[in-house]
Amino acid sequence: MKQTLKTNINVIQETIENHLPAGNEEPTVVAVTKTVDEKTMRDLHALGVKHFGENRPDVFLKKYENLADINDEIQWHFIGNLQTRQVKKIINDIDYLHSLDRLSLAKEIQKRAEQPVNCFIQVNVSGEDSKSGFQPDALADTLKELEAYDKLNIIGLMTMAPIDASQEEIHEYFRSLKELQVEVGQSNFSNAPCTEVSMGMSQDYPIAVSEGASFIRVGTAFFKDAL
Question: What residue stretches are annotated with the Alanine racemase N-terminal domain (predicted)?
């Protein structure tokens, strides 16, 4: 299995290089490990993968505990919907939150975090009713309000493309998020440097890379034929 993982890592790396615009830095690849066990994560870590993404607090906490001996070498990303009541359980053990999607969540993070947390604001660029996140035209007012929350470090914006979107539509959604990130980054909000863009998963990360993603969240592509 480890050899297959290594092959898949090489394929992902080659795909990124083939889609990376000239002059852009390579994105940080977050291995979405929600479907795999700690042994597989240890294999990934041994192969050089340092960024792991989980979407359930209970599963994250179990893995965090079981991987305690290498936690200092891991960057933990929470990528799923986070209920307000769950914030206190995980917020001081994660390095990045990719799903800041409402003000009530921000308020609870401000209350529970012991130090500033790197957060991506989730933006509903596609306008899907089923998607959570802030509307693009609400970002400025949201960020103005979040200036009072010194435990939130808004490092960027995040979105997900609709599962049935065409490649052309995905390009449009990701391009829109990148433009929003640039706009916000130039607005000089006190706790929102907003230099990063988190977008792209296994099925569409090549498009995300081509549109300027700085973080991509890849699961299936890591584990193809390895499990």
Answer: 5-224
